[in-house]
Design a protein that fits this description.
The protein has about 350 residues and is mainly alpha-helical. The chain has 14 helices and 4 strands.
Length: about 350
């Protein structure tokens, strides 16, 4: 009882020994005698540590990764727009395979590429959570969800059509079609090519940079795979590339190969696509996209006898080991592959006449 003899008070905690309890009681009596006593605080409820929810864990996961700005921005957007609105407030331990299946089904079927990217991101985050001991198993078990299913099939031009497309472009951009189509460059890689990337005879082309654009900002970055590659240009386009260098490219090693409306300025994708739209309509291929030229390159290299690894190395796919990109380029198989491409062109052009 307290000094008022009306209310029973309890100690703020339990004691492991009788001596400790008696010591506390003695201390309380002494406070009463000194008229400084106050009712003891209620027993503290031991709070159970909260389990991490996906939103907090995914933000920490993203912050701890070394990523390119474009990749980081894309991951952040997928988390903000498509993952965390549904799963963000769920504790990791409660995210089950059924939870993931329901979330994935809710993404719909209209954007298969986006869905694949979101699922792959969630899978990677959960895999790390398993390694951290926060989940027993990875709940991302939807079969085939990480495989990108194309909604649109690329348009593969034939050889004469590529020549016509190049001729339909402005003179200072004609060679950009030939280089993109026969060397298999991505748009951002073509836009960042410079004189120093070509050897004096225009036999080899080094691809080590690209223009990337994200959140309204363009920047010079490494290639998508993060590694440089060297591509042997087919002999039949080398005279066109040499002519382009002489007519449209400055002598400075850093001079851009392909420029926008004003010669010497970085070429923006919007300006280029305006020219490309006119050219594709002229050859009757209104649905053609710039990236389809890359598919053309892969198809033609395969037809010319390139092995899977050789074609992937030529196109700069990240799944090919770095050594495959550099060994024997001029004197080895890539030179033979480039020669075969030109021989095939001669035959197709002859057949088309």
């Amino acid at each position: 009882m307290g000094p008022d003899s009306l209310t029973r008070y309890k100690a703020p905690t339990t004691f492991s020994t009788k001596m400790d309890a008696e010591g506390w009681l003695s201390s309380e009596r002494r406070k009463i005698e000194l008229d400084v006593w106050t009712p003891p605080a209620p027993a503290k409820v031991r709070e159970k540590p909260t389990e991490p929810v996906l939103r907090d864990y995914s933000e920490r996961w993203l912050a701890e990764r070394t990523l390119k700005p474009r990749t980081r921005s894309g991951y952040a957007a997928n988390l903000r727009l498509h993952i965390n609105p549904t799963l963000g407030d769920v504790e990791l331990r409660y995210i089950t395979a059924q939870t993931v299946r329901s979330w994935y089904a809710g993404l719909g079927a209209e954007t298969p590429t986006r869905n694949s990217h979101c699922y792959s991101l969630l899978h990677a985050i959960c895999e790390t959570a398993v390694e951290d001991g926060l989940m027993q198993t990875n709940p991302c078990t939807v079969r085939g969800a990480m495989a990108v299913k194309r909604k649109r099939q690329p348009i593969i031009l034939d050889v004469p059509e590529v020549a016509k497309l190049a001729d339909a472009m402005p003179d200072h951009l004609r060679a950009s079609i030939l280089v993109a189509a026969w060397a298999g460059l991505r748009w951002g890689e073509t836009a960042e090519l410079r004189r120093k990337d070509l050897d004096p005879e225009c036999v080899t082309l080094t691809v080590e940079r690209a223009i990337t654009r994200r959140d309204g900002v363009s920047r010079i970055d490494t290639t998508k795979g993060g590694e440089a590659r060297t591509v042997v240009l087919p002999p039949h386009i080398r005279p066109d590339v040499k002519d382009h260098l002489e007519r449209f490219v400055g002598a400075d090693p850093n001079a851009l190969l392909f420029t926008g409306g004003r010669l010497g300025r970085q070429m923006g994708d919007r300006v280029y696509r305006e020219y490309f739209d006119i050219a594709r309509k002229e050859i009757g291929r209104e649905s053609l996209r710039v990236h389809d030229l890359r598919h053309f390159a892969g198809t033609q290299a395969t037809l010319a006898g390139g092995s899977l690894k050789e074609v992937m190395a030529r196109l700069g796919h990240s799944t090919v080991a770095a050594a495959m990109r550099y060994q024997g380029l001029v004197s080895g198989r890539d030179m033979a592959l480039a020669e075969a491409l030109s021989l095939m062109v001669e035959k197709q052009m002859t057949d088309a006449e």
